[in-house]
Design a protein that fits this description.
It contains one helix and ten strands; from the N terminus they run ββαββββββββ. With 167 residues, it is mainly β.
């Protein structure tokens, strides 16, 4: 039987051993793999209308009330003149301004690789929208290709709720 310390703790206490070790990627500097999972509660604040729009099959942009600059992504203030913006509905059809094919992705997209990311140009908008292109085989994406928005039936309230397909 192990001796007990004055405070009642066991002198021979040992941490339980585990079957798996730590994955080491590099020694100097030491880089290791650690799993980390957390539930994160956050607010979309002034961007909430953009996400509600996606839930309802709408693309919303921000238009400057002073200079008229139209952003395809949410902005509370104009990046050109600093004035406030208001929500405007964007077209759901556009053209591919540029694109890239991704052969590796984050956890959510690993099953879809390779996948295409495109920058969509809309008539009447001054900026581009970064999104995914679905339904086009590798090697067949073209700059200038006409595309149209599709919306996820069951919203994740995420930018991935909208994607594009050939028009």
């Amino acid at each position: 039987m192990a001796d007990k310390l004055k405070d009642g703790l066991d002198r021979d206490f040992k941490m339980p051993e585990v079957e798996s070790g730590t994955v080491v990627y590099n020694v100097d500097p030491l880089i290791v793999k650690s799993h980390y999972e957390i539930d994160y509660i956050h607010s979309y604040c002034q961007d909430s209308p953009w996400f509600r729009g996606l839930m309802n099959g709408q693309l919303l942009g921000s238009k400057c009330v002073k200079c008229g600059y139209v952003f395809t992504t949410p902005r509370s203030h104009c990046m050109e003149c600093g004035a406030k913006t208001e929500w405007v509905e964007l077209p759901t059809e556009g053209t591919i301004h540029t694109w890239t094919t991704c052969y590796f992705g984050g956890q959510e997209f690993l099953k879809e690789t390779p996948y295409h990311l495109i920058l969509v140009e809309f008539e009447g908008a001054n900026t581009l929208l970064l999104t995914r292109l679905m339904g086009v085989p590798v090697g067949q994406v073209k700059i200038g290709m006409k595309v149209k928005a599709r919306f996820r039936r069951l919203s994740k309230i995420s930018p991935t709720d909208v994607y594009f397909v050939p028009a």
